[in-house]
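User: Can you recover a sequence for this backbone? Please restate the input before giving your answer.

Assistant: Of course. Working from this structure:
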C-alpha cells in the first residue's frame, strides 16, 4: 500500500505565495481566525507588563485587530523566509511578528517617550510571555481538535476520559449511561482517543510547511501544555 501523500497545508500555501494570492490570503485568514485568542492574550500581557500609555489610546483588542489587519494585508511578509524546523512553523512566525509589531507601535508613540525612560524589551519578561503564548497556542489547538470530534452524545460522554485511565467507578458509570458492556465502552474510548490524536495532528499539520515538521511541533505542543 502506498503511503498517503502529505497534503498542501494552510501555512505551506502562505509561504509559497508570501500571502500574495487569493488562495494564500484565504489560508492565512483561516489561520489567524483560528489562533486569534492566543495572540490577544499575549498582547494583553505585554501591554499590562509594559505600560498601557506606551501604546497610545489603543487597548489590547485594538492592537490585536490592527496587527491581524496588517498581517492579512500582506504588510508583514517582507522578511518572511522559508526555514526548516520549528522556527519555520506558523506559531513561531506569528509570535515573532506580533512582538515586532508591538515594538514598532511603542516606537511610534513619541509623545509618551519624551516624558519617560523607554523600557527595554529585555525586562519585559519576554521568555515567560513566549512560554505562556505557546501554552495558549497548544490549548487552542487541543480545543479545536476536540470540537472537530463532533457533538454526538456518546462522544460528549467520553470526552472527559480522553486523557485519563478509567477507574472501576468510571467504567460502571459509563456502561450504565451508554448502555454498553464494559468491553464495548473500552473499544469506543480507544477509537475516540485515536480519532482525537488524528484531529490534533491535523490541526498541527495546517501550521507547518512539511510533514517532517509535524512530529517536532507535536512534541513542542506537549511540552507547552
Amino acid at each position: 500500500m502506498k503511503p498517503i501523500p502529505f497534503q498542501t497545508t494552510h501555512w505551506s500555501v502562505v509561504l509559497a505565495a508570501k500571502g500574495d494570492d487569493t488562495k494564500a490570503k484565504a489560508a492565512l485568514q483561516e489561520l489567524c481566525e483560528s489562533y486569534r485568542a492566543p495572540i490577544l492574550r499575549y498582547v494583553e500581557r505585554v501591554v499590562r507588563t509594559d505600560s498601557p500609555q506606551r501604546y497610545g489610546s489603543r487597548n489590547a483588542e485594538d492592537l490585536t485587530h490592527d496587527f491581524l489587519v496588517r498581517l492579512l494585508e500582506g504588510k508583514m511578509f517582507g522578511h518572511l523566509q522559508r526555514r526548516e524546523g520549528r522556527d519555520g512553523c506558523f506559531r513561531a512566525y506569528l509570535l515573532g511578528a506580533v512582538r515586532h509589531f508591538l515594538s514598532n507601535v511603542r516606537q511610534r508613540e513619541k509623545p509618551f517617550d519624551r516624558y519617560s525612560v523607554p523600557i527595554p524589551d529585555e525586562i519585559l519578561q519576554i521568555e515567560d510571555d513566549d512560554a505562556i503564548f505557546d501554552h495558549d497556542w497548544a490549548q487552542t489547538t487541543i480545543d479545536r481538535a476536540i470540537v472537530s470530534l463532533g457533538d454526538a452524545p456518546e462522544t460528549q460522554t467520553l470526552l472527559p476520559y480522553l486523557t485519563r485511565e478509567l477507574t472501576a467507578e468510571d467504567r460502571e458509570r459509563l456502561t450504565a449511561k451508554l448502555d454498553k458492556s464494559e468491553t464495548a465502552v473500552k473499544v469506543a474510548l480507544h477509537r475516540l482517543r485515536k480519532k482525537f490524536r488524528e484531529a490534533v495532528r491535523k490541526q498541527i499539520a495546517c501550521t507547518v510547511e512539511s510533514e517532517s515538521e509535524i512530529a517536532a511541533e507535536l512534541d513542542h505542543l506537549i511540552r507547552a501544555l
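That completes the design. The chain is about 65% helix and 0% strand.
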